[in-house]
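Take a look at my tokenised protein here and describe the backbone shape.
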Amino acid sequence: MNIAIIGLGNIGGSFALAIKENIPDANTYAIDIDAEVLERAKEQHIIKDGSRDFKDIIPNADLIIFAVYPKLLVQLVKDYAPYLKEGCIITDVTGVKTSLIGDVEPLLPEHADFVFGHPMAGRENRGLEFSSREVFIDANYLITPTPRNKEENIEFLKNFVKTLEFGSISVISPDFHDEVIGFTSQLAHVIAISLINSDDDARNTKKYTGDSYRDLTRITNINEKLWPELFMMNKDHLVKHIDNFQIQLDKLNAAIQSDDVETMEEMMLESTKRYKDLHDIED
């Protein structure tokens, strides 16, 4: 099987490493704008070969994994479409699905099947040097099929990511994906960004932090080019989640200001209950 990874950064590199470890017979190729990254990956035997010119790789690819920003992905699909191999399967790692699917599917030839996916794994740092196959081990993977997809290709992607040692694999609708990711991922980033940016620069906070602040701000080492795209492409769901969060924040704020201990205790008991459910902790 010839596999083409488009974008050999953190996630693309992690796929390459996971494929090398778990599917050693596969021929893994990469396309990236950085020739030095491609050469380094080849020297380290992470990929078989790489190129900056997609025409060197795409026509022979059985599986294509897009690990690039969503807007770029759309443009690349438009460029690649005339060169796609008969029966090739395409997938992605993008954190927003509904609008992306609407942009991509009209560009596809009938003989290519794009099964949209989302690995719930990764690291804050960018670049091939931060890639790791271990981040995929037991991680969740989301697949968002469309009516255009062939059932056997959905099954192929399930088996493929299972072979790469992902844990729970969920097949969900694109809209539900965007709704739940808007809450679990995008809202979490909105809160973390707002928290760290509300700090008083003159305080020199880093001298006084503990685990709580470090844990809550870990994800603020953020890709400032990617995340605005994700926020804007999912704004309807995300703004709704921000509004619901604001309701809870206002409720807690009011309870603190009015010395309403009962409300604070109720909110904390509810959060503890939800935490235990999230982590499958028995009372």
